[in-house]
Design goal:
429 residues
Length: 429
């Protein structure tokens, strides 16, 4: 059997799954118990900031615990409910104790997450963190489902193991510590990829959730369209737009017309480009996209580099993903999404199901070493714990510490591109 045939057979084969009623072996029960205990312990530790964080005030704007919940959810929704426009940086800084402006999330975010902003701050923070934890566990279950497509494994055991690794990892803990909405976006993105063929309607709804952050939704919709899931891409985008339209209309009316509303959007983008955490030429921003990593590594950020990267990464990835089967095409898609536009290390959360499936296929069949290397490189942000970050900062400086994740993710995308481009490793759908 030639290497190409071996790879195609290994990846396309769908082994018989374990019977639904099959009992676990003693070893599997032990693994399930240990993984569940590890998940519970890590979850308790990760949830603690939600009830320990001090109430926001002008005196503690630098507080990192729940800072995204504070700046990107609670107070923007409060501003919206009080009749203001949360996309206006000047209004947010004048009315609320926030450190960052409210980025251009989909407007329906203000309605979807309103229940977490209605009670007091701490009650809302605890409720939001608990829901985020449940979404991480749901993402682990989706990873177990993706793995089970290619490797016969007990669903419950695999879910528990992935959940333990995820909640214990830096990427998982950061979602709860900072209060990010990435778990919901990741579930949406993963759901769109997993269901795009068998359940396109559900996949479209999932894509609409991924559109919550446009830097997720736009590239994912483009790549799904290029891979043949046109109905999913167009319907999901339309659902997100329709859900946001009433909020946009209300903000336009409040602001006095479309002109003033567009002025606020421009002001929002201008402010974001000038911050030390959002600018492409910032040496402290924890960005993992190609443009930002290129600057931190070389000091070079030519005009228009972000648009060039967006077009180049999406074009290359769309062309190659069409030649691959899942889960390889899904992993390449997820990597392209996070390196083509503004993204941070925690955004690699969307790749968890495809990453787990590719790792399982590679481990079982030892096929496609470049794909195995890509998974290892993508694991770097997950292992970038506080202790590791302290050691890196002490040994090589803070610039290296905030760059290593981006270099690893961009390298993973490069490995996936090279693997997909090799004629002997191309898998035709």
């Amino acid at each position: 059997m030639t290497p190409a045939k071996h790879t195609a057979t290994a990846t396309n084969r769908r082994p018989s799954l374990l019977p639904r009623g099959a009992s676990l072996s003693p070893k599997q029960r032990l693994v399930l118990l240990l993984a569940t205990l590890a998940t519970a312990a890590s979850a308790w530790h990760a949830l603690a900031p939600s009830w320990q964080v001090p109430l926001p005030s002008a005196a503690n704007l630098g507080e990192e615990r729940l800072q995204d919940f504070r700046d990107a959810l609670y107070f923007p929704i409060r501003e919206f409910l009080h009749g203001g426009n949360p996309y206006d940086p000047a209004a947010m800084f004048a009315h609320w104790p926030v450190r960052q402006d409210f980025n251009l999330y989909q407007p329906y975010h203000l309605l979807l997450h309103a229940p977490f902003a209605l009670p007091g701050y701490r009650a809302g923070a605890v409720a939001f963190s608990v829901v985020s934890l449940l979404l991480l566990i749901a993402l682990a279950a989706m990873a177990a489902h993706a793995v089970r497509r290619f490797v016969p494994a007990p669903f419950g055991v695999t879910t528990a193991v992935v959940a333990a690794l995820l909640v214990t990892s830096q990427v998982g803990k950061a979602q709860l510590y900072v209060g990010q909405i990435n778990p919901l976006v990741a579930v949406g993105a993963a759901g769109a990829l997993l269901a795009r063929r068998d359940r396109p309607g559900w996949a479209a709804m999932a894509l609409a959730l991924a559109w919550l952050k446009p830097q997720y939704g736009l590239p994912l919709a483009v790549l799904l369209f290029a891979r043949g899931s046109r109905r999913v891409a167009l319907t999901g985008t339309a659902i997100a737009a329709a859900a946001s339209l009433p909020v946009v209309a209300l903000l336009v009316v409040r602001g006095g017309g479309i002109g003033p509303f567009l002025d606020v959007v421009v002001a929002n983008l201008t402010h974001a480009r000038g911050t030390d955490y959002g600018a492409v030429d910032s040496v402290t921003a924890q960005r993992i996209d190609v443009a930002a990593v290129l600057f931190r590594v070389t000091g070079w950020a030519p005009a228009g580099v972000e648009l060039a990267v967006l077009a180049g990464v999406l074009g290359t990835s769309a062309l190659l993903a069409r030649r691959l089967t899942a889960p390889l095409a899904d992993l390449l898609t997820c990597l392209a999404v996070v390196v083509c536009a503004v993204h941070q290390p925690g955004d690699v959360l969307i790749a968890v199901p495809s990453m787990a499936a590719v790792a399982a296929v590679w481990w079982r069949h030892r096929a496609g070493p470049w794909w195995g290397a890509a998974v290892v490189a993508l694991a770097v942000p997950f292992g970038h714990l506080y202790t590791v970050d302290s050691l890196l900062g002490t040994a090589f400086g803070s610039r290296t510490a905030v760059t290593v994740d981006g270099v690893a993710v961009v390298f993973a995308w490069g490995l996936a591109v090279c693997a997909a481009a090799r004629p002997s490793r191309v898998l035709v759908t």
